[in-house]
Amino acid sequence: MSIHQTSISESATARKALSNGSGAAALLAAGIGAFVLAALAVTADHVAAVKSLMIFYRPTGPLSGVTTSAIIVWLVVWAVLDARWKQRTVALGSIVTVALVLLAVSLLLTFPPVGDLF
Fold first, then answer.
1. Exposed, middle or buried, 118 (CB in 10 Å: 0-12/13-18/19+)?
2. pLDDT tens-digit map of 50-108
3. What residues have CB less than 8 Å from 38, skipping those under 6 apart?
4. DSSP string computed for the chain
5. Phi, psi angles (nearest 5°) of residue 89
6. Which range, 24-33, 83-92, 106-115, has the best average confidence (pLDDT)?
7. Mean pLDDT computed over every residue of the chain
8. CA separation for the pair 118, 113 (Å, rounded)
9. Is 15 a residue whose pLDDT tops 80?
10. Is the dihedral of CA 109, 113, 116, 117 positive or negative?
């Protein structure tokens, strides 16, 4: 009986150790953070009210607010997702796909010809 109980306990420990929720949270948060950075940069370039709102440090202009806001969003999303998914095993394939799509869209938005379309 002792051997059987040990294998059940080891199996439960192995399942807990193999949860991928924290990693998935980090990947998705990075994609969301990159998208927020690009979206805020494009918006601050084209909307005067947002541009003046994003000036946190005058010598750098709106870039200071854009980057600071994007970092705050990234950290908050990461903390919330990690708290919710820490002990879970999530569908990593779809999360990686969403994160990569957000990253690709973010990269496209940073090119002036694409960003100027909006």
1. exposed
2. 999 999 999 999 999 999 999 999 999 999 999 999 989 998 999 999 999 999 999 99
3. 105, 106, 107, 109, 110, 115
4. -HHHHHHHHHHHHHHHHT--HHHHHHHHHHHHHHHHHHHHHHHHHH-HHHHHHT-SBGGGBHHHHHHHHHHHHHHHHHHHHHHHHTT----HHHHHHHHHHHHHHHHHHTSHHHHTT-
5. -110, 115
6. 24-33
7. 87
8. 10
9. no
10. negative
| Statement: the pTM of the whole predicted model exceeds 0.85 | no
- Tell me how far apart the alpha carbons of residues 8 and 11 are, in angstroms, rounded to a whole number: 5
- Asked if residue 28 lies in contact with residue 81, where contact means CB atoms within 8 angstroms, the answer is yes
What are the distances in angstroms from CA 93 to CA 47, 106, 108, 116?
36, 20, 23, 32
| Pair 36, 70: CB distance under 8 Å | yes
Mean pLDDT of 6-25: 70
pLDDT for 74: 97
Q: Any idea which residue has 């059940």 for tokens? A: 8
